[in-house]
Fold this sequence. Notes:
This protein is of the alpha/beta class.
Amino acid sequence: MTLKLTRRTLMALSVAALATPAFAQDTIALRMSTPASETDQRSVALAEVFAPAVAGFATYQPHYNASLIAQNSELEAIASGDLEMSIASAQELAQFFPEFSIFATGYVHQSAEHQVAVFNDPLMDPFKKTVEDELGIKLLSVMYLGQRHVNLRQTKEELTVTTPADLAGVNLRMPGTDAWQFLGKALGANPTPMAFTEIYTALQTGSVDGQDNPLPTVVDAKFYEVTNQVALTGHLVDLNYIAFSKAVWDGLSPEQQAIVQTAADAAAQSGREKQLAKEQELVSFLEEQGMEIYAPDLDAFRTHVQEQYVGSEFAASWPDGVLDKINALGN
């Protein structure tokens, strides 16, 4: 099925969903499907902040570990009226609307705060409108997922990463898709595709020099046992959107809509604060394990990486001027 056909089909499904009441007037069932676990910061924030806030007129029904809807099928389920909520990535949305790939690109977002500024800026209005019109989905708020950094076997004395030039010749494990491999090259490294389950042994044996992941992954996978440093490149500030059925939204009163929006923003803020705190705690933990944690020249990395994207096939779908507007909202 082509992307064009998928978009047309989903638009038809969303129109049908909009024409059919999704709930009884007294109680609204808000089923939320996510591949994340119950203890994930995003899941916790929605359960502890969003659910109580809407309890006066809705029941929040979370389903974790993709137990209700298969991962990457949530958007179609909302469009067809079979689901009310999900936590959607920019990568997922880019499967239907290629212009969303800009929000999954290296050094486009500079921080968690920058993500919020971008999401709330008028530059996002056409993106949000497209998702509403063609999928029947309202993007309520943006949730912070974490920052990916460069994690290396070499000590800082052996290799100090200050600019992309310092990563020349470094075999850096990156996920295997073309987009991830392109990002690895843009960082200045020699990207090496490899399954996640093989990373620890590859680092241990020296088959690769390093890998890129958020700090929680470095800790959870015990990569700190076989590496010596983390350069806080922050090359991808990852995000999710709280996706909400437009059919359900349109059936709410203005007062209820305001409550849902406020609840979503509050949940996103709660999850953001907890995730940032966790990342800071992990810096201390990794330093206690003997790792060297430091920040390179982020301006040099950002400039170099964005130069690689401009004019590439990955930027072909980006609306003119949007990257400049996003950059202007940063530091």
